[in-house]
Amino acid sequence: MSAVLTQIQQTNMVSNSSDQKADKTGPVTTALCILFSIIFITSLILNSMAAWIFFNINKNTTFIFYLKNTVIADLIMTMTFPLKIASAFSPEWLVIKQIECRYSAVIFYINMYVSILFLGLISIDRYMKIVKPFKTSRMNSFHFTRIVSAGVWMSMGLLSFPNMIFTNQSPKENFTECSQLKSDFGKQWHGAVSYINILIFLLVFFVLVGCYLSICRYIRNTEKQFVSNRDMERKSNQNICTVLLVFFICFVPYHMCRIPFTLKQIQNDFDDNKNAILNDAKKITLFISACNVCLDPIIYLLMCKSFKTLLVQKLNLQHCSPFNRGTTRPSRPQVRRFREYSPTGQ
Ligand SMILES: Nc1ncnc2c1ncn2[C@@H]1O[C@H](COP(=O)(O)OP(=O)(O)O)[C@@H](O)[C@H]1O
Questions:
Q1: Which residues contact 274 (CB under 8 A, 6 or more apart)?
Q2: How close is the Cα of 314 to the center of ligand 1, in Å?
């Protein structure tokens, strides 16, 4: 009799767990797993190539140094995708979800914000080189660039490290959210880090818009003063807009969703319907943010001349590259200076 009861209990547990699986791996999760697999492979190819090119570039400018850091952050972030996919697709493997919550997701977020900060630094670097090329500032020195870069990695790492330490509660059989593995202090810390990171995002967003508006204005004035090269102006403006567009599309939706989502995690008093909507919205917008790893290589191609040249060389595309076609070179010294520091000129 007891053997039969045990058997029934086991069958119930299996069917509960498969019900749970069916529930958790709903259409949104399944679609996101497939999409994450696609960007994992794409990003691995694009960023490995980008890393290979960057580490073969002999030129060492502050701009290239920041781009190298972005590639590294993108590659590390890409490495966290498989665990994200596995934990979403196999909710019955609690240990995978636990590792995802405690380590992998935290590494994902660290690298996302490192990327965001480097995009901000890249835009400040462009602003200094284009708009104030003769101003010798400490910000232009390579030494300063290294210190700032180390600061970015360390501050993001130290800020987020407690999110690993305080994700230390034993998982319940039916746990679905990482916040359920956190102590009370862990939840508070997680909330603080989320909001600090939202502020960092806003700061970078305004820096980016400010820098690029100034650059656009400067380019327009310079063009009017020195040359009537409409093509060059249009190209520079296009490149600048691409960075802004990539930043806006990738990161704005996620940050709009993150504020109520974090509130839900900390307060835990939202109704089921709101919970479900917020969960799906956060998953989808987080995926859009993750797509940044595939879009950054486009920025390197558009903004970094040395990258473009070496890529064409390595792929042996000199004869068929559209990049080699008709760029007129103005001869005046002022224009040469403009070209040297233009968004496509490094
Ligand atoms: N901005 C952030 N910086 C560092 N770690 C974060 C950040 N946001 C969330 N985390 C951590 O990543 C893990 C997953 O968080 P989150 O995505 O909010 O939860 P869930 O996977 O349950 O939706 C948690 O351990 C959390 O503390």
A1: 264
A2: 39
What tokens does 287 get?
């995926």
C-beta separation of 69 from 156 below 8 A = no
In contact, 63 and 125? CB cutoff 8 Å: yes
- Taking 70 as the threshold, does the pLDDT of residue 176 lie above it? yes
Over residues 83-104, the pLDDT tens digits come to 999 998 877 788 899 999 999 9
> Among positive and negative, which fits the CA dihedral 188, 191, 193, 195?
negative
Q: Which residues line ligand 1 (CB under 6 A)?
A: 101, 105-106, 109-110, 160, 163, 167, 177-179, 190, 193-194, 197
CA of 346 to the centre of ligand 1 (A): 36
Report the predicted TM-score, pTM, of the whole model to 2 decimal places.
Answer: 0.84
Instruction: Give the pLDDT confidence of 136-148 residue by residue, as tens digits.
Output: 666 678 889 999 9
Contacts of 50 by beta carbon, 8 Å cutoff, 6+ apart: 71, 296, 297, 300, 307
Burial (CB count <10 Å: 0-12, 13-18, 19+), residue 35: middle
Complex ipTM value:
0.98
